Amino acid sequence: MITSWPSKRAFCTLRYWALTYASFLCNQNQSEQSSMALFNLGLGLDAGTALLLLAVVFVIYYLVSSAIAWHPLRAFPGPLVGKFSYFWLISNARSGRPAEHFTKLNRRHGALVRIGPNDLVTDDPDVIRRMNGARSTYSRSSWYQSTKLNPHEDSMFSLRDVGAHDRLKAKCAAGYAGRENTELEAGVDSQVANAISLIRRKYITTGDAVRPMDLGKVVQFFTLDAITRVAYGKEFGYLATDSDVYDYIGTTEAVVPYLQLCGEVPYIQRIVFSKFVLGMVGPKHTDESGLGKLMGVAKKVVAKRFGSDAKEERDMLGAFVRHGVSQAECETEVLFQIIAGSDTTATAIRTTLLYTMTSPHTYHTLKKEINTAIDEGRISSPVTHEEGKKLPYLQAVIYEGLRMNAPFTGLCAKEVPPEGDTIDGRFIPGGTRVAQNVWGALRRADVFGRDADLFRPERWTEADAAGRDRMQKTTELAFGHGRWGCAGKNVAFLELNKIYVELLRNFDFQIMDPAKPWHSVNFNLFMQDNFWVKVTEARR
């Protein structure tokens, strides 16, 4: 019977011969000993010790190579160090560009690559859909444990139990869909107006009096105020104060890189999320800074809805309460919404604006479509969601921007069912974690063409119906798929269909330093700032 590790008998035999040989050499005459100086290597070791160390090295090599040779995942290519350790994943996580490195691996080795002792990664859209489908037997892996922003409670995104997840999602569905939130679109409109007001109030350049604006920060302030307005009925005031209210941005930039590392390296996750560590240094809602401070904000927001004098509100949180979401569940959803509902959408907007501004043809074509629609009375002020959906080039720009830089690059690893699975003729044993490289999937040449790495919105207007449908379904993997799909997808598209039109109908933008347009690093979420632009009133 072949096992995954060398047998005890083989190990003992190897040790016996190594020690016997070392003893034999140590008893040779002086002339023979002098010839053994090669083993000293300037370390002051005698020949016997040197040979014993060689034997130890050989044993380690034998154990590692045997583990690699007989491991159930041995058929899958990938970095050598990743076959027996998490060092490659740790290094990649700390690089700030993990999605690009996963994509290089997939392009070099194929759709399934081994990146850890029990970990594969895929950029195949069909495999991603298969794992996430409503009838899939795959489950959420331990990776999701690291997404618990409140480490003591699960959100809809971190729940691994399928039944519990589906029940919570059903109770939250009406709130996310907007069916009971009659002010959903008006709420987004109000924050678009606040963003326009902030820019006009503080950042308009006239003549040679340049007033640089960090577009990255302003966009994030917009998405933060938009999600808090539609979710809790009142924006937190990022745009009004032009500041990082509650130190949200600083907190996420400090915390998210460590959560990423916890998700990808199981033993680090077990330590960080252990009761002992959380009890000693874990965040608490009474903290005055960090994640605990945000937990406290969420707790206060929710407490108002469960108090004795609470009024029924027609916003997202109000819908949660009406459909039986508990107070503790609401607190975790509120906390997760602030991040999931702002960071990812902000990344999509910032990326699309950067690519649009650095592509003169795209910039002027989009401006022309917007101005023509205004002149012909096809869009109102502000543009409605339905009006935006009818602008073909706008839709092409929105989808191309999403495609070029998937806003969330978390691995979202699923666990293979106990009976295992066979993909492309290769068996994957049960319990294996299969990660999703969505960033790479959105740049596949077999879906988007040989110029998939090029920002070119025209690919959407040139494609036939079947090709466009395939590209659209693949791009929307950025929001997940099937059972595990993003509940707030419609809110994100509502914001995207409005913000580009309103920014470009009101202003003209110019990047201050084309050689270094921004600073962008990726730790599952993108941290993008120093996106300095010059803003002037739009000229028709």
UniProtKB/TrEMBL annotation:
TM annotation in the entry: 38-64
Entry cofactors: heme
Q: Which UniProt keywords apply?
A: Heme, Iron, Membrane, Metal-binding, Methyltransferase, Monooxygenase, Oxidoreductase, Transferase, Transmembrane, Transmembrane helix, Virulence
Does Plastid appear among the keywords? no
Question: CDD domains, from UniProt?
Answer: CYP57A1-like
Residues annotated as binding heme are 486
Question: Is tRNA-binding found in the keyword set?
Answer: no
User: Record's superkingdom?
Assistant: Eukaryota
Query: Pfam families this protein is in?
Result: p450
Please provide, alphabetically and separated by semicolons, the GO molecular function terms listed in this UniProt record.
heme binding; iron ion binding; methyltransferase activity; monooxygenase activity; oxidoreductase activity, acting on paired donors, with incorporation or reduction of molecular oxygen
Q: What is an annotated GO biological process for this record, any one?
A: methylation
Which pathway does this chain act in?
Hormone biosynthesis
Q: Which family does it belong to?
A: Belongs to the cytochrome P450 family.
Name recorded for this polypeptide: Cytochrome P450 monooxygenase ABA1
Protein's organism: Colletotrichum tanaceti
